[in-house]
Amino acid sequence: MRAMLYALWQYRHFVLSSIRNQLFSRFARSKLGGLWMLINPLAQVAIYALILSNVLGAKLPGVSSRYAYAIYLMAGLLAWNLLSEIISRCLTLFIEHGNLMQKMNFPRITLPAIVVGSSLLDNALLLLAMLGIFVLLGHPFNLALFWLLPLAVLVAAFAVGLGLTLGVMNVFLRDIGQVVPIVLQVWFWFTPIVYPSTIIPEPYRPWLGLNPAYPLVEAYHRVVVYGAAPELKGLLPIAALTVALLLTALFVFRRAAEEMVDVL
Amino acid sequence: MTVLRVQNLGKAFRTYRTEWHRFARWFGLPVKPAEETWVLRHVSFEVRAGEAIGIVGQNGAGKSTLLKIITGTFQPTEGQVQVNGRIAAILELGMGFNPELTGRQNVRHAAGLMGFSPEQIDDALPDIEAFAEIGHYFDEPVRTYSSGMQMRVAFAVATAWRPDILIVDEALSVGDAYFQHKSFGRIRQFREHGTTLLIVSHDRNAIQAICNRSILLDQGTVIKEGDPEEVFDFYNALIAEKQSSTIEVKRLANGKAQTISGTGEARVEEIALYNSKGEKAEYVGVGEPVELHVRVKVYRPIETLVLGYGIKDRLGQVMYGTNTWHTKQVIHKPQPDDEYLFIIAFPVNLGVGSYSVQTALVDRDTHLTANYEWRDMALIFNVINIDKANFVGCLWNEPRIDIERLTP
Q1: Of A211, A224, B89, B174, which sits most exposed with the smallest number of CB within 10 A?
Q2: Rounded to a whole number, what is the distance in Å from the CA of B37 to chain A's nearest CA?
């Protein structure tokens, strides 16, 4: 464990330059370059807002702004994008880098570190774009937004804990790579992102507590839409789960590192 | 000083009845693998600083696995590898290059992957750029490179820092002739400074030219280790020995090993060199017309019989070789107990030195489909300079030199 962290520290420049290169290569040979990675989620917001705002907009409790629904959507998608991007990139991480891992001896831990770093960077850029839109829509800011920093770290840690384990298993059992995107789709719709949790009928609502993404997305909603601090009580179990997932992931990663190269 | 010690190394690939068993094993459950395939077993050898070792073997013999364990990407299943110093590998050049980034950015990335700090990379960048010699392309995206240019950059960065052990896998023939010389030069220079080389190649000449020792791997074990020429002779015999026959190694008077192998349908009974006076000779003069007499006896009925021969210098490099397939003198349907005398007449257009003759009795142009007999060091003879002007080299290529005085 300590050796792993030390190796990561030794390779910190490599990790940073890889993150920079990934960002850079997105800009290469395309007119709008990196803007596409903002346009994609924002278009998603526009579509949902256009189609669903009449149906759902009225049901958003406690806000009266015309654009409340769009803001609600953006807050949820900001959290979800980070979560799903890290999970799906971790999922195929080792398969994509199989050849490199067979030929070069470098600390494997740098690979997920690069994914987390570059996903966080993308997410930060998306947040900036969204803040710009908030200004246009006349949505007020307050200091609660700074809660997004620890929240993003928590989401990333949760996602990498889950994604890394799945990514390692995917090397041996490729079905996982097919199943997970479907599960992510279902998960997305079972999480109150495009709809408020209040539209779920009362008797079913406690089931939401079983969805680990729910407290995370809710925290984003509270911070962005209502400008309030997140409920720490709701986040504690998810933080504990994250620690457990991370430890499992590191354990699996270390046990499997040897065999992984054999089957790649 | 020993830079590399490989002790009782073994590598097994495990398969499980289901992958869930594998996962369960990580968590400590006692699950037995359904099958273990050993691709390397009981491999031991030591390499001292400054040595150059050629690793030879057929496809699937375990060469790449061995190199990957030494490099550290594969973990051994049993045994251990001790490495004193830094290892660099020229395995697949240019792997991991991002086509959208420039050569310079890719060099930084690749060097970072090798574990160097930004300061070290900054120091080495001018050298890398100069060595690659691709001019302004160094700052263009790699996708605009030719494959040769990509090789140049990749080689330059892989060898920018002198390693203690350099692993070269089939990559010696990179790029154009000019760059090949340049990269060979750098490898040679590394060696002079004490770098140990581990080379995997099927190129006999390359290995014999560079290596002082060879290791022959077959089915995951070391079956021969020693002088590269001897190992290659044995290896060639091994390739031909896919069927069922023996390999016989005899020590000759000069300490060299004679390897005879084959299935035995036909054999060379006698081989001798006759000089211009028609006498059996061990010493012949430069440029002298000689005859090589090879008497062959057939033991079992075969479809076709081809005699091939080659003359090799003392380092084992073939000076000249051909066979009766190429000269369109194939013998069809020879019968048991038939004997043939092949009289091969040629002038000894060779430099001064000791030479050996190898013979092969086969069915067509290679010894891969049938190998009746393969005989290395079938005959040894010496070339001496009796009546020619003094010259150096391994070839007698009589010139006519005219000198014209240009100034009055």
Answers
A1: A211
A2: 12
